[in-house]
Amino acid sequence: MKQQKILEFWRNVEIFDLPDFNKDAYLIEEGEPLPWLGNNKPSNANYKYRYTIIFGKIQKEVIVEHLNNLLDIKEQNDWEQSVTGFSCLSALILDEKGYPQEDSYVVASYTFGIRILEQNKNLSIVAGDLSKSKDDFLDRYNFQVFDFDGKQVFQGDRVLWEHLDKEISYLKDINKWWDQDINIYLLIETVPKDSEPNTSFLNSFYLNDLNYLSATEKKNDLGIALQSYLTLVPSTIERKDLIQNKELLLQSFDPRSMTSGRWPSKIEYGLYSAQAGAVNTIFSNLRVKEGLQGVNGPPGTGKTTLLLDVIAEVIVERAKVISDLGCDKLFESKYIKIEKESGYDQYTYSLKPSLKNNFGIVVASNNNAAVENISKELPLKKKIDSEIFPDADYFSSCSQLLIEEDSWGTLAAALGNMKNRSTFKKAFWQSEEKTGQIGFNELLHSIYKEEDKTEVYRKDFREQDRLFKSLLHEFENFKKQAEIFHQQLPKYIENKQKEAQFINELAEIKSKLIKLSDERAYLIKEENTRKNDSDKIQTLLSLQLQRKPTFFFFQKLFSTSAYKRWNSEAEELINKSRKITSLLDDSRTKLANYKNEINESESKQKKLKNNLSELNVFFSGYQKLQNILCEKYGIETKNILDIAFLQKDLKEIHLLSPYHSPKIAKLRSDIFIAALQLHQDAILVNAKRIRNNLLAFFEMLSGWSNVNREVAQNLWDTFFLCVPVVSTTLASASRLFPSIDKNQIGWLLIDEAGQATPQSAAGLIHRSKRCVIVGDPLQVEPVVSMPERLVTKLRKEQNVELDWSPCKVSVQQLADRASLSGTYMQVGDSEEKIWTGFPLRTHRRCDNPMFSIANEIAYSNQMVKAINENSTDEFLGASKWFHVECDSTPYNKHVILEEVKFLQMKIYELQQMGYFGNIYVISPFKSVADYCSNEFKKQNNISCGTIHKFQGKEADIVFLLLGSNPASPGARNWASQKPNMLNVALTRAKKRFYVIGNKKLWASCNYFNAMGNVLE
């Protein structure tokens, strides 16, 4: 149940999320006429008024101060960004006649949280308090079921001042801590008649999801990806360090893992090694199973490019399923009827199981800009190579109003908030009379409305299917060739080692044979000499026998002197004969042994030569395969994984593109474009069913109809079939997918995940089968507005480790922690090492010294620079640290007026040089950034802010305005406690980075000292 404890802790944190007070609401006085009691109506008959009553306007700082007092938290340091703005206690939404609806009221959850802290109770009861507050609301407003024109409506009393007074009394009763007046504010909006009330602005966007998840009884009730996300440390034995172990990185380049689909960008540019390895790893791990993969992407390392290829491959994978099913069998034969309160029944059609909850792609981020970037980039015609792919088109006639520039296809929908949903529906679904653009609704209807054109598109589908399969077949043939070559690399290395060994052995044998031959010749000579000696002795012995004394028997019997003399001579000759015979035998034995040894060596020599011949056959075949890859498929030798590739330094490898060539890039892009065309034809063949489903989908999306989870999933998958990618902020996800549950989203891609608190992604990860989480924990960190001591109290109450605190970790860090493929990084000069997900390391944004400084302070010098330097004579000369001292009392704590004046002078110099491009002015302190914003508010090309404003952005020139009171070292220590702030500032600058501030004070701080050593 440990994971439930973590979820409960996160839920409790979100209870104290402070809603923003709507600045457009105005104060209404007691007894003032209530506008809904009149007969006011908008001039446009298609619109209506909606009234939002907001109770209380309280400074967030006051709420935080009360929480600090409750928890005995000391005063916040002046350099830390304090919570700003106003909050409220509750809100009530009324229709144009002043009637509340069942879900139109909500009390801010923090009010119950404060009450529970005051009572020293467990925060788990907040969910019950919120539920009871809704029941109390229904009682206070006397909700009943009414019959309007045959339609059953659950509605409360028309709101009068007496109801508002009761509301004030109720709020005072539950907010004893607030002893000031509770004023009433009113927001009047003109909204489409069919729009529904939405009180989501009042409480945490994540609270409902966390309430639901924390209430799960079993671990398996959570999605596999979320279970991984909530695992503290996987088996470290299984971790693959791709930087320390180069072979593990090289394994990710296996052609078997290459994806069929590629985003149709410039074909001469391939993914760099780590990008390609990351994409291959994502699909190797997640193609057929659920799970999660973190990708660590430092600035300028191509995170978006990587995500585009992931999207392309998912679309190709679905096209394969469509091809297998055939255009006439995408749907089940039966329909699903949706009975509506109006009495009008709606018919929808169920997709085949193989097309459900596998291919829908959701791109999410904590950052609005990141979400907008991906949803706007996908349809942009300039984001593809239109010269090479002139016919690339995917329902482009329905997507032109989605973006301001030329569009090539309806690839993405930004649907996070209600405004985005309405905008998308109008631009995509509805026709536009003024521009003549045909909406997708009308386009589908036109297929069967009058003359049925289904057969035309059925024929097109068959032709496109043949092309699609042909392209896939061609790519599979390439992969087979590349894979055969790739798989032979270990054998090649082994055979090269064998070749060297065989050559050495041959040389040894040759030397040995020469030696043996020389020694044998000597033995033959020795044998001949000994044989001659033996023959001579045998001759002498024969003569000696012939010279026996007469009467030999008697002389021997009586041992005469003549016998003794003869016998002595004979024995001497016999001994000599024996000795020389023994020597001769020894020579002959040696000769026989040498002959055997020579024969054996010659046999080995022959075998080694045969082995070398066999190796040469292998090497010849290996070279032929390499030649095929080079000549037939156009792959440069440097991008082929051969022995030379393996021997390269890791930094050299990061600059290569394994198995990439323009020809292969075009083939893979053609597959993706053919996949889209196959989708388009299949959709048009099934125009009626899809149109029926999308009519129901847009009603569901607009909040006009409630459907069960099975129907909701089918409608979403139908939409994903037509529009492959949906983007949303994490904050909007629970409202966008209220009826989508565990594993019903095929793919979740979270961008800039280092900025997001860990709890913000839990609900969306639970809904998703496969999660790819991309970001960098060393850039902008999550913003947690509540006091850290309160977070600590909530954490300890659930007995949860610090590793799960939103004050300490982000979505990215949890995803990295759960990923087996990654690397360790040492942060700056500290001994701390952090594990990151799959490491992207090829940087294509910044010149030096920005690159080298950031690489040193944040990335253990693991990044590799892939762009050439520009002239240092441009702009204000080379990047520099302008030392400016404060001669007066700082303005507003950290604003040094001398620095601001110096900045103004330098910007003036740039303008005098004719430079009017974008300039970023970044400061560690909000007060400094705000002051500069005011100073340069009339110059649109100059943007001022803290790093939070510039995450994901870039400019040729960046000024870092340091500020800080010289007498306040704590402020500088705070700004330099981690490399994140300086890292982000540095990596916004493409060409020049100019620092303005007191170098004597700042250059002694962590990380800033490294910059001080480089910048003059």
From TrEMBL:
Q: Which Pfam families match?
A: AAA_11, AAA_12
Domain DNA2/NAM7 helicase-like C-terminal: residue ranges: 840-1000
* InterPro entries (UniProt xref): Coronavir_polyprotein_1ab, DNA2/NAM7-like_C, DNA2/NAM7_AAA_11, P-loop_NTPase
Output the Gene Ontology terms for molecular function: ATP binding; DNA helicase activity; hydrolase activity
* Keyword Repeat carried by entry: no
- Coiled-coil regions listed: 584-611
Print the keywords alphabetically. ATP-binding, Coiled coil, Helicase, Hydrolase, Nucleotide-binding
What family does the Swiss-Prot or TrEMBL record give for this protein? Answer: Belongs to the DNA2/NAM7 helicase family.
| This protein's name | Superfamily I DNA and/or RNA helicase
- Native source organism of the sequence: Dysgonomonas hofstadii
Mind giving the lineage of the organism this protein is from?
A: Bacteria, Pseudomonadati, Bacteroidota, Bacteroidia, Bacteroidales
